[in-house]
Amino acid sequence: MFGQDIGIDLGTSSVLIYVKGRGIIAKEPSVVAIDRESTSLLAVGREAQEMLGRTPCGILAVKPLKEGVISDYTVTERMLKYFIQKATKSSPLAALLKPRVVVCVPSGVTEVEERAVIDAATQAGAGRVHLIEEPLAAAIGVGIDITQPCGSMVVDMGGGTTDIAVISLGGIVHSASIKVAGDTFDDAIVKYIRRKYNILVGERTAEDLKIKLGCVTKRTKLLAMEVRGRSLVSGLPKTLQVTSDEMYEAMSEVAGTIVDSIRNVLEETPPELVSDISSRGIILTGGGANLFGLGQLIKSETGIKTVIADDPDECVVQGTGKSLENISLLKTYNERRIKR
Ligand SMILES: Nc1ncnc2c1ncn2[C@@H]1O[C@H](COP(=O)(O)OP(=O)(O)OP(=O)(O)O)[C@@H](O)[C@H]1O
Ligand SMILES: [Mg+2]
């Protein structure tokens, strides 16, 4: 076996790369910095993220994916090329043979969006490209034997999409993909602070608040944090103190939308599978699974216990990687998916 097998979690917030036999070799924010004049690539990942919102006019820092799908095709292709080269550079023969690649996509993607992912990966140096839906990859990554006639529910909340899926016998029985996820909470926090204090905070500050104070079930211990923003009255910088109770207020509505979607999927799921899900529990994956109180909220609203996967942000890429070990399963699944 000379060619390399690569699994890619191409996410709105982060890109993770899995190489068969080596495991996860990269986990970076999905951000690229480009020199406007020469169009050369200046930085990818963490280094480029630091530049977001801070670039001089000659540099462009972009997030090429939005709401789970490619929004800037050329930049995505260049980002993928960077990661594929990184994955194959230790083996010149593998680079020559072009790697076999599996890329995940949200479960609600259109054919055009799928085509864009396949084309971008091919242009970036991949050989054969297979696609896998994010929640299915997440289920495989968690270690569920998806081929069994037993229902599992996976909720994968990333930055751009929340994918909710009921899986049984190697496929998705019922699913929903909503463009309400981590980024939506950040936006809600920005809006809340602007409305309440007339202060504009940046996206990164909002995300920081979400991670450190955020909650969708009230915290028993009140937390507080100082943040800086720009006063919309004076136009000058201003510091303010924000509490976890305020974050709860800011985030509740978005959390409600996600819980409603989970409930809708459960309502349309055949009763036998609902019974399996009740005994196994709902599995939460994606970076958003770390959101304080999310599991508790889902449990109280659905009556079904909810389990946060270990290393939830790595489940999808682990699953894309493992799916490479069973390409025939992936082919059958893709054929069925096309018919759906
Ligand atoms: N401790 C935490 N608490 C709350 N949210 C978190 C935490 N850690 C990460 N997140 C959020 O998780 C999201 C990123 O998750 P992930 O890396 O799974 O997204 P992605 O796969 O890139 O996006 P998508 O699947 O939607 O394309 C971000 O919105 C981030 O703010
Ligand atoms: Mg994801």
Task: Outline the fold blueprint.
Blueprint: E1 5-10, E2 14-19, E3 23-29, E4 32-35, E5 41-44, H1 46-51, E6 59-62, E7 65-66, E8 69-70, H2 73-88, H3 92-97, E9 100-105, H4 111-123, E10 129-133, H5 134-142, E11 152-157, E12 162-168, E13 171-178, H6 182-197, E14 199-200, H7 203-212, E15 224-231, E16 237-243, H8 244-267, H9 271-280, E17 282-285, H10 294-302, E18 306-308, H11 315-323, H12 327-339
Parallel strand pairs: 1-9, 9-10, 11-17, 17-18
Antiparallel strand pairs: 1-2, 2-3, 4-5, 4-6, 7-8, 11-12, 12-13, 14-15, 15-16
Helix pairs in contact: 2-4, 5-11, 6-7, 6-8, 8-10
Bound molecules: adenosine-5'-triphosphate and magnesium ion (MG).
The site of adenosine-5'-triphosphate (ATP) has 23 residues, from helix 6 and helix 7.
CATH fourth-tier homologous superfamily of the largest domain: ATPase, nucleotide binding domain
What is the count of DSSP helices, taking H or I runs of 4+ residues?
12
Sequence of strands across the biggest β-sheet: 3-2-1-9-10
Give average pLDDT, whole number: 93
Helix content: 40-55%
